[in-house]
Amino acid sequence: QLHDTIVYAHKLGFQMGIHACGDRAIDTCVDGFIKAMKEEPGKDLRHYVIHGDFTTNECAKRMGDWNIGVNVQPGIKFIASDFMDRIVGKRRSSRHFPCRLFIDSGVHMTMSSDAPIVYPNWKQGVETAVLREAKLTGRVSGPEQCISREEAIRAWTIEGAYQDHMENFKGSIEVGKLADFCVLDEDILTIDAHEIKDIPVLMTIV
Questions:
Q1: Is the dihedral of CA 108, 194, 174, 169 positive or negative?
Q2: How far apart are CA 27 and CA 197, in angstroms?
Q3: Please, which residues have CB within 8 angstroms of residue 198's CB and are 6 or more apart in sequence?
Q4: What Å distances lie between residue 10 and 43, 106, 175, CA to CA?
Q5: Distance between CA atoms of residues 117 and 108, nearest Å
């Protein structure tokens, strides 16, 4: 039924972003997206999975090959790592929101807060994507899935614009694009990574 819905929406030209948690759910969505694109190729709809928190290596490769995006929420990783080991086991917990895997697989990865589930602080999202440290214990979960600051900032900016089919209008500071940006009180690229979430915002320009 899910595949039929995806194929129908794809034929009508709708972009789909589907919430999916767990490897089976993610695989099922990706199977549906690929089925739809095979039946009606040539449409630049940029379907994507929302969360994608336990994506397998094989599924991430298919997503990269078929230009299927993912929208992840590092802030959830920040608050969930302290108890995730007990729920799904350490091996799976280390792969919770596998950001490095997505980037290395060529997947267009965006980031969001998932507010009001967590506080909508994008700087916390950048910090967690870089460090993967738990909120209460500070334990690092899945260090092999850490990404760089530049990669995290890109996921919050130009990749989000790409997901919205708006990369030519917003998402990066360039002549001719919407001039939406904030001015920070510290250099986010050089400050201690543990202090990223607390950098004051001096100004927001819209």
A1: positive
A2: 33
A3: 123
A4: 8, 22, 34
A5: 23
- Please give the DSSP secondary-structure letter assigned to residue 199: P
- Among candidate residues 130, 122, 149, the one with its CA nearest the CA of residue 204: 122
pLDDT band, residue 82 (cuts 50/70/90): confident
First to last CA, the chain: 42
Q: Using alpha carbons, select from 32, 2, 19, 8 the residue that is nearest to residue 114.
A: 19
Cis preceding linkage at 98, omega within 30: no
**100-153 tens-digit pLDDT:** 999 999 999 999 999 998 899 999 999 999 999 999 999 999 999 999 999 999
Q: Supply 105's token pair.
A: 């697989």
Closest C-alpha among 149, 163, 36 to residue 107: 163
CA-CA distance, 145 to 74, in Å (whole number)?
A: 11
pLDDT digits (tens, 9 = 90+) for 2-47: 999 999 999 999 999 999 999 999 999 999 999 999 999 999 999 9
Which class for 41: exposed (0-12), middle (13-18), buried (19 or more C-beta within 10 A)? exposed
